Every structure is written in structure tokens, then in C-alpha cells.
Amino acid sequence: MKLILLSLFVLFTAVEGSAQNKTLTLYYPDDSTNVLNISELDSMTIFICGVSKVYYEGKIYNTVQIGDQCWLKENLNVGTRINISENSSDNSIIEKSCYGDDEANCDEYGGLYSWDEAMQYDTTSGSRGICPPGWHIPTIGEYTLLKNAVSSSGNALKEIGQGSGAGAGTNTSGFSALLSGLRDFDGSFSDLGGVFWFWSSTESSPGGSQAYIMYLLGYTSIIYLDDYHKAYGYSVRCIKD
After folding, report:
1. Is 80 found in the same domain as 26?
2. Fewer CB within 10 A of the end CB, N or C, for the chain?
3. What is the value of pTM for the model shown?
4. Which backbone phi and psi does 24 adopt, to 5 degrees?
5. What angle is formed at CA 171 by the lines to CA 7 and CA 79, rounded to 5 degrees?
6. Among candidates 136, 170, 165, which has minimal Cα distance to 150?
7. 84 vs 225, which has greater pLDDT?
8. Predicted pLDDT at 10
9. Distances in Å between the alpha carbon of 55 and those of 128, 134, 226?
10. pLDDT tens across 51-79, in order?
């Protein structure tokens, strides 16, 4: 289905004119307007970040506006579960790991993906990967913008109840990060409730074995940007194109 997606803060919309000359007027917070000709459209979807939801592969994801960016509010949970003894491969099937080989953990925390699987074997920074159409896996630059938007406070990104002491989540941004742990490349799971690891779509060196990530720890508010081996299984959070 073809959609027109408008990521706007729309205060009011109005349709004017006859059926042959229909227009949609968008009113922006700065009092400017934009008139769109919608005469030739059979249908139209207006996307408002923070209000609209995304329906993808049988699941519903909420959205949140942080600064100038629009994010999915939950970790991606898409694909077929493989066991810890198995590795994902380039076989046209999206393959995920669930912490402890338990599907219930994917339902709560999202899937864990190797970098190649998350990117669907495309090494282009900013690629869609396993994200819904119109969304992509964030670049390291987009994570830097996110970090700046919350004044480098990892607690502002964590859901309330995640972390403790100096690392207790406040979720003032609405990002709602859960400390979802990881799948180690040696064939084990660790750090559920202690660490949140997000893949970026940016390699640390072209064709190399590592890619950049953003991660949060449960005992500190620091937001870390670093690079790790692509074989790890980390979470995926999508950002709108």
C-alpha cells in the first residue's frame, strides 16, 4: 500500500475545494502553512510522531519525538528465533535471538541481532536493514544527536524502574530504553537488567569486523558511543527516514 507520511506537528488541517480540486492545508506551530493538492489521491495517511503508531510484521510500535528525530519507542522484535547454539546467516530469513532462548524475553525486550543480520547484509550506513519501510537503523551520527538532545543523560533515555542509584531511569525523553542484555559471540547470554546495547548502521572501518554502538549501563547515567564486534547480538531501535 502506498502511503504519504508527513512527520509534522500539525495544529489543524482542513480540506477545501471540490472533489476535482481538493487541497489539504497544514498549519505549523510557527504560524506558517503549506497547501497540498490531494485531488489525485485515493487515500492519505498523516504521520504525527509521538501520536502515530507503526504496524510492522504483526506488531505495533509506538513512536516518540526527541529533538528533531522520530524514534520507535520499543526495540524491534521481528524475525524467526534461533537458539543460542545457532548462528544467523544470509538466507533471506530474518533471524533473531531471544535472551535465554525464551521467546517471552523477545516480547518484552525485543530481539537480539548480529550486525550483519540487523543490516540484512548491507554495509551502507543509514540502511533500512530489518526496520519497517520508511525507517532505518541509526547512524552513529544520529546517536550523537540523540545524546545531545538529552544533554548526555542516559537516565533520560531509560524507562522508569531500569537501573538504580546514579543510573536510575527517569525516561524524561520518552525513549523508554530497557536494559535488555546481549548475546555474546561465544554462545552465551549476559547482562539482562544491567546493560542496553544498540546497534548503529555505521562500521568503525569499511569492511572491518566492528561497528559502532550506543550503550547504557544500569549504574550510571553516562551514554557510551563505542565500537564492538559485529558477531555480538544487540538490540535494534529504528529511526524515521
Report:
1. no
2. N
3. 0.84
4. -120, 125
5. 65
6. 170
7. 225
8. 41
9. 16, 12, 31
10. 999 999 999 999 999 999 999 999 999 99
